[in-house]
Amino acid sequence: MHGFAATLTPDEARKVSSTPGVIGVYNDYKVDLHTTRSPDFLGLNIGDGLWTDRFDTGNNVVIGLVDTGVWPENPSFDDTGLPPVPPEWRGECEAGERFDSSMCNKKLIGARFFAAGAMAGGLSFDEGNEFSSPRDKSGHGTHTSSTAAGSAVANANLFGFANGTARGIATRARLAMYKACSVYGCYGTDIIQAMDSAVKDGVHILSLSLGGEPREFDIDVLAIAAFSAVRNGVFVAFAAGNSGPDEGTVTNVAPWITTVGAGSIDRKFPARVTLGSGEVYIGQSIYQGSPNFTGMAPLVYVPQCMVSDTKVKEKILVCEYADVAYSGMRVAAAGGVGLIGLTGSFDGEGIPVESFTLPGLTLGYFESQKLLKYINSTSNPIASLQFDYRTIVGESRAPTVAAFSSRGPNSVVPDILKPDILAPGMNILASWPTETPVTDDLRRAGFNIISGTSMSCPHIAGVAALLKAEHPNWSPAMIRSAMMTTAFPLDNSYRPIFLDESLKPANALAIGAGHVDPVRAKNPGLVYDLGVQDYINLLCTMNYTEEQIKRFMPEPSACSKFGGGVGDLNYPSFVAIFDAETKARTLTRTLTKVSELPETYEARVVNPRPDKVEVVVEPKKLWFGGQGESLSYKVRFVSKVDEISYTEVEREYGYIMWENTEHQVKSPVVFMWK
Predict the structure, then answer these.
(1) pLDDT digits (tens, 9 = 90+) for 289-337
(2) For an engineered disulfide with 55, which of 50, 225, 289, 472 has Cβ 3.0 to 4.6 Å away?
(3) Catalytic residue among 76, 454, 456, 667
(4) Is 252 in the same domain as 379?
């Protein structure tokens, strides 16, 4: 990229914007930061699939993370057994506060620090609250980087929970940390400089677990920086955001990036509450102590955990889920003997686990409502808490969509489905700085369990690294297509993936193409490829002016509009939008063969509502000869809905699949009436 950052008055900024050669001036803004089991849950078992000796060879693949830094002493960054750093690597290990070049190795091959934007915004890094170096104070960057490509660490756990061998997804890939975020948040100027540096250093994959409000692409500096990375062949993954379950909340929606939602894994940390009525409800908890009471204790319900407003001595406090771990400290100080956190309707059965400081657990929404009903039904509600101090794996349906995971439709370009894909993001165990407390009572550990689309994003970055190692010549769009067209829309019981907030089946606005399946993505058969010119044509179709397009491609670039509108972009998913004037849509796609042998594919349409929309694929068969051959097809969508109220938006979804006995290339289709 070609640009600079400076502190200007509004008048100076206007003058700069009118200077010949300046194609855009942007006001800086702040954005937010949005494992022992997840590799196994994804089917990445030692000696199988992408983790055999043959396929776990990502020695020359470099994953760059733009995040809060790294704690280099953590064993997840051990480089034992790795060959020398790839000779084409151009990055550096920058020195700073408690960080020097000796802290990089053959695993962590680069580390840089960017804070000029934050400091221009008034933040100080010399007050002991943050390190003026790539060292991680927050813990967020250490967690995400070890998730993407951490080395194997035996007996990793948090206070004895989730014990096992922790591995990153791409265990032999190299890592480069670009610290552009801190405990204070992230500034756009620092993120852009970090991304630009990562591309020049030679990363192959970029993972950014951060984001702000969706913006039109020409004024979204992160989208513009990501476009620059993709132009240079770098696969870019962004977190979808943590503003679910409301629809239209997904962020990072540019089609040249891969947008990742968060799902659960099949691991639970059970704890029980037994009521005086004899009913037993199962919640979750990371509590490692021994309760100082074993019998029944009175229950007291206090909204929002307002401990100071009630008498909790020798009682169990029941309150809506807030910062229940911190509330536990206050309950203990007030003489309370336990705490039950209640999950709200927005979170449903999704329970981000807490490391309680006193006997405590969190209940899902449906059990929470039953508990409140019991409390209101008797003058003397009592209960006891029981802890198994164990981790259960493989006994629950997973994945489910985390309630916090942001949902589509895409608010900038509704014709392009976002998020793209689902990956593990609920209660993920990964590395943590040993000086950063994992609990409000300042306990510390080398691993921590946290949740968010921040955790799902590096899973996809790791899978992308595995695919890049296996297919070095694949473009970023081919890598994304391979993941999307082989993703699973079903859970481990072969039933539809459910929403945590309602326990109802999820649609494509929540899961995109489905849950990532790394082993199947290695051999997708066909892919939907996209190049820079395709994205330029998209911007033309969106009626961007020549001046706006220069922000993405400074050199002159001819373009042509898609005949079918924005939805004609060769994306691995479809969105057909109907209104009073538009009753039919025809969209075109082109498939490129990546498997070796000649194959014939036949189209199959999964349409749950043929009474509402007719879907016709032409041709119905595609005959592919050699590897690299491309063939196109058209899909005609015809709405059968005569009238629909303008006050409602109806949505249905299905799939278009190209399949044979060897491969199934599956694309989600969303029908929307507005």
Answers:
(1) 887 777 899 999 988 777 766 688 899 999 886 566 667 788 888 888 9
(2) 50
(3) 454
(4) no
